[in-house]
Amino acid sequence: MNFINHSSDAIAEPVAMKTWVEKRIVFIELTDGRIIGFPANRFKILKNATDVQLKEVTIRLNGFALRWEKIDEDITVKGILAGNFQLSED
Q: Could you please report the per-residue DSSP string of 3-51?
């Protein structure tokens, strides 16, 4: 009996291809074509970051996380998509 492995048929979790910040909103463009934005003020460390620090975001872990090196902050793309924010909207 032959078994077929369908694991390669699974839908891949979307990851970030591009990230940028405009007016304290962090945007990510995902591999599935969506563009998601969230207010920096929804995260404790980002809320206190300067505009310059906020714009120094990079994509890490093959698109699975965002990183702000100078303020030592990491946020997962999965957490963003799930709406796992630290602070409520102001």
A: ----GGGSPPPP-EEEEEEETTEEEEEETTS-EEEEEGGGSHHHHTS-H
Does an H or E element contain 74, and which?
strand 73-76
The reported pLDDT for the residue numbered 68 is 98
pTM of the model: 0.84
Q: Which residues span the domain enclosing 43?
A: 13-82
Encoding tokens for residue 70? 């100078």
The structural domain count of the chain equals 1
Average pLDDT of span 32-41: 96
In a domain, 89, yes or no: no
Provide the CB-side half-sphere exposure for 46 (13 A, CA): 24
Could you tell me if residue 58 is inside a domain?
yes
**What CATH number does the domain containing 50 carry?**
3.30.2020.40
Does position 89 have pLDDT exceeding 90, yes or no? no
